[in-house]
Design brief:
With about 700 residues, this protein is of the alpha/beta class. About 45% of the residues lie in helices and about 10% in strands. The chain starts with 19 loop residues before the first helix and ends in an 11-residue tail after the last strand.
């Protein structure tokens, strides 16, 4: 059987052009062939001369069109004419004589030398033209930079009363600003002196809204870097990049982009993170951006705790679920574990603690082999990232059960850094109560504060102590704010917009990237981890709040009707003991009814409403809890007396009994203020609400 073997001889590139040697060889052999053929066939010698003249004219025209040097044009035309002249003479006198062959060889050597000389000249000429263009551009840039340097030296002197010497001006490749490298004057001046005048510098430079002039440390303590943004990139909404290439915990995970349009990466191997953002600032979207980055890493397992129905992690799980209680073939969830209940959260935190403590013992040989005290994280031994939505609020909760969660979270933050278990906590506000925990401030070195234009509860000095020139009004756009890491000082940034359809795409694209928990950790985790996706523990993920439109499914208790607890009158629930809040609310309603001719509550005992007919829908039972909470809130407002109270205090008082959120209380207070039930006293962070019975005569006096 014959076998095909590759040739080992020289490889000829027939598409390549002629060089000085091959060009001269081709010209001389061609002339010899034409002369020999012409002499043998009796061709008129003048034809060769005519062809050479035509070739000389044609090459002269093309050389002039290509703007070649005069010596190159002359050499090409002379080569055609000399070759044609030799061919004409050889056809007349005989091409195979020693005189003809010797003159042809001499002619070939001369053509090769001339071609080589003109080629070198053309290359040098081209390089000189490029260098000249670069010098021209550099001169223009240099002139622009000198103008910028002179302008900002004068501006810093005028605004900050400091005379600096600009050493360099670097224009950003994105075209959105520049960086000034300046030398501080002698006498102990520091970059802080310029940083505290950031707002004044931006105003003096007439920068657009959203653009800043931030000063930071230079290469040494006598230098300062001033980043000046000239284009507001925070105003536009940019979707999350569609480049889902694999990442690593060591190479950094992108969380957004700076005002110079460059990505900002976070390195989470040793540090925790804190994300602060009020309602409407884009905090949930930021959590999805963080989860997207973790989903792309090949050495990270993401565990999510969200006691608000698991809404933060659910979009990363549902694309992988099938109808039978398992997963779609080839698709795995974007997060490795999701807890939406207190019990599941306790199970997850206990498992994380057990894994961390066991790793400290089980991997001693590996630590000794690598000569390190930190577990070498890899796809074989992945890091566990705990993303806890509103986790900072968990740490300051007064609820007894939530305090147990807080204790476990703090233990993980304090003890599991070396064993590769870190946390990302979110919070609703940058207040002293949230950031008062020393453990959060010390370990959460990567910090994000999304403002969205919100001013109340956004104390940037608490999130970024020591940073100057940061103002909330610099980031009025949703998804924008400030971000600081050990590698990058606190400054303006914005995160990408990520939508549910892109989350589904990321889940599908990253399904094969996710690592698996190492066998050592899996063994100690036990069934709590291995059974985390069992149908009975994930049934809530597949539950629907209502039947689809047009569904013919009927309630088992009452065929043909909705299955509402208000309709189940066959077995009324046992009466529970009246709580203190309920008693206070009841007494308050009795006082109101006794003094004013008010309408009874919808669920009150009088007047007795008729029982709804079978065709009607009785939803009054669903309002009981809300009305009780609202009445308790009003009672708390009245009990506060002339000093008044705020939405946060009322929400905390109702949280244990009713689970009422601050946003709900804010809505009630707004309604009561509009109808005169309550009066708002004070402004800003000092604002409080007073019941109209205790309201001062002049509320604006405060």
């Amino acid at each position: 059987m014959a076998s095909n073997t590759a040739s080992t001889g020289p490889v000829w590139d027939w598409a390549a052009g002629h060089g000085p040697v091959t060009g001269a060889l081709s010209a001389t052999t061609g002339a010899l062939a034409i002369a020999t053929t012409g002499a043998a066939t009796g061709m008129p010698p003048g034809w060769a001369l005519a062809v050479g003249a035509a070739g000389a004219i044609g090459h002269t025209i093309t050389s002039l069109r290509d703007r070649l040097a005069a010596r190159t044009v002359t050499m090409r035309a002379a080569s055609w004419l000399v070759g044609a002249g030799w061919t004409t003479w050889a056809m007349a006198s005989g091409p195979l004589t020693w005189a003809a062959l010797g003159s042809l060889a001499t002619l070939g050597v001369g053509l090769g030398a001339a071609a080589r000389s003109t080629l070198l000249y053309e290359e040098a000429r081209e390089l000189e033209a490029i260098a000249q263009a670069e010098r021209q551009v550099a001169a223009e840039l240099s002139a622009e930079r000198r103008a910028i340097a002179a302008e900002w030296v004068d501006r810093i002197q005028r605004v900050c009363n400091i005379t600096v010497r600009v050493l360099a001006v670097e224009m950003w490749p994105t075209g959105t600003g520049f960086t000034i490298d300046a030398e501080l004057p002698p006498g102990g001046a520091t970059y802080d002196r310029i940083a505290q005048y950031a707002a004044q510098l931006g105003s003096d430079a007439r920068l657009p809204h959203g653009c800043t002039a931030n000063a930071s440390r230079g290469i040494n303590q006598g230098r300062v870097l001033i980043d000046v943004t000239t284009v507001n990139v925070l105003a536009e909404e940019i979707t999350y990049p569609t480049d889902y290439t694999p990442l690593s915990i060591y190479t950094g995970i992108p969380w957004g982009y700076r005002t110079n349009a460059e990505e900002i990466c976070v390195y989470m191997r040793e540090q925790c993170a804190l994300v602060v953002g009020p309602t409407g600032s884009g905090k949930t979207n930021m959590v999805h951006v963080i989860l997207a980055g973790f989903a792309r890493t090949t050495d990270v397992l993401t565990w999510v705790i969200d006691l608000n129905a698991g809404s933060a992690g659910l979009p990363w799980v549902r694309p992988a679920l099938d109808a039978e209680g398992g997963f779609i073939d080839g698709v795995t969830p974007g997060v490795d574990w999701l807890a939406s209940s207190y019990e599941e959260a306790v199970l997850m935190l206990d498992t994380a603690l057990a894994i961390g403590h066991h790793r400290k013992v089980a991997y001693q040989d590996l630590l000794a082999e690598r000569n390190t005290d930190q577990l070498p994280v890899s796809p074989q031994i992945p890091q566990i990232m705990l993303v806890i939505d509103e986790g900072a609020e968990i740490l300051i909760s007064n609820d007894r059960r939530i305090k147990e969660l807080a204790k476990k979270i703090l233990e993980i933050i304090r003890m599991m850094r070396a064993m590769g278990i870190r946390t990302v906590l979110t919070a609703l506000g940058a207040t002293g109560s949230v950031l008062g925990n020393l453990m959060i401030r010390r370990e959460a070195k990567a910090r994000v504060c999304l403002t969205g234009g919100e001013i109340e509860g956004m104390d940037l000095n608490k999130v970024f102590p020591g940073s100057r020139g940061l103002r909330v009004d610099q980031a009025p756009y949703k998804g924008s704010g400030f971000m600081g890491t050990p590698e990058s000082p606190a400054a303006l940034f914005k995160n990408w917009r990520i939508l549910p359809n892109q989350i589904r795409d990321i889940v599908a694209a990253t399904s094969t990237m996710h690592p698996t928990l190492d066998d050592t950790s899996r063994h100690v985790a036990g069934p709590a981890y291995t059974e985390r996706w069992d149908p009975d523990r994930t049934a809530w993920m597949r539950a629907h709040s209502h039947n689809p439109v047009g569904s013919n499914q009927e309630s088992p208790s009452r065929p043909g009707r909705l299955n509402l607890s208000a309709l189940r009158t066959e077995q009324p629930p046992a009466a529970s003991p009246e709580s203190e809040a309920d008693a206070l609310a009841r007494r308050f309603r009795e006082q109101i009814d006794a003094q004013f001719a008010t309408t009874p509550e919808p669920n009150g005992p009088e007047p007795v409403a008729e029982q709804p007919t079978a065709a009607e829908l009785n939803l009054s039972a669903l309002r009981d809890e809300d009305n009780a909470a609202r009445a308790a809130a009003l009672a708390a407002l009245l009990a506060a007396g002339p000093d008044g109270t705020g939405a946060s205090a009322i929400a905390r008082a109702l949280a244990d009994e009713y689970g009422t959120s601050r946003q709900t209380v804010v809505g009630w207070l707004r309604t009561w203020t509009e109808d005169g039930t309550a009066v708002r006293v004070g402004t800003g962070t000092k604002a409080r609400y007073v019941h109209h019975r205790h309201a001062p005569a002049n509320p604006d006096a405060d």
